[in-house]
Amino acid sequence: MTMAQTLESPSRSGSWLARYAKLDQSAPRPPRVSFEFFPPSSLAMEESLWQSIEHLAPLAPEFISVTYGAGGSTRERTHATVKRILTETPLSAAAHLTCVDASRDDIERILDDYAAVGVRHIVALRGDLPVNAGQIEQRADGFAHAGELAAAIAKRGQFAVSVACYPEVHPQARSAKADLDHLKRKIDAGASRAISQFFFDPNIFVAFVDRARAAGIDVPIVPGILPITNFKRALDFAARCGTSVPASVRRIFEGLDETPEVRQLVSATMAAELCRELLANGVEDFHFYTLNRARLTQSICHLLGVRARPYAAGEQPA
Question: pLDDT at residue 147 above 70?
């Protein structure tokens, strides 16, 4: 029997080829994608960021989001990055906005600035405290949590509002139910989309969406996907946000610290498999935490059938 006959044999139904064919049948069209970047802190990082955006723009993302540093530490850089995306690319840009240690007047001024440059989508977050900031008390003139921030943004009627959700529960939540109740309040306040924290087990996300639907949350819940560029850093991220790391994932990346090319291939395959499992469960959108690195995310999108398309001058992505 030839190698080709072996690969095509019905008895090989459990092979990777048959598995991918089955998953492809459950996903008749490519998913919608969006990408997250962080604002650059140096000229070299700025050049790298714009190279990444140029690589990913032809994939026609639904939007590109730009993060907001702890305690508003990147406010000006976030604003400048979002403005440049809107003025120099055909892409839709979403600006992250956090309310920790900010007054309501501060937030309103920031929203005025975003509206003036054409931003129409805000990702509303409570935000993290700056490193070594110590205890920061809730400001009497500020927003107590992301739900209040989302309500204030939605009330203006200028922006679509996205919020965060946690399939494995926010680390500071009292319970899974309390965390889901908080998400429900954010949606009731006017948010029209929830973007999840990253995870590695598709069953965790599917179960979370089921619980959210049972709780009356009916807006799109978009899975956040973290392509692993550095496994030790990914473990640190996971520890901080309450994401479990299965033993199987740890074994997959064991011994790859000194072989970045192999690690990237493994990472792309693993992330694509995660997304394919989600596609088979009815997911149609993915939000990629790119860490300002385009090629890995581009590889994953290619494996999912997301292909580049050219834009005419001034055209907006579909």
Answer: yes
Closest by Cα among 246, 263, 258, 259 to 204: 246
H/E stretch holding 194: strand 193-198
pLDDT at 109 over 80: yes
**Domain extent listing, the chain:** 33-129+139-303
Q: Which of 36, 62, 148, 168 is catalytic?
A: 36
Q: Active site includes 36?
A: yes
Do β-strands 221-225 and 64-66 pair in parallel, antiparallel, or remain unpaired? unpaired
| pTM (2 d.p.) | 0.86
Is 178 in contact with 207 (CB distance < 8 Å)? no
Torsion of CA 138, 101, 125, 173, to 10 degrees: -40
Which of residues 251 and 102 earns the better pLDDT score?
A: 251
Cα–Cα distance, 78 to 72 (Å, whole number): 9
Q: Judge: domain 33-129+139-303, CATH 3.20.20.220.
A: yes
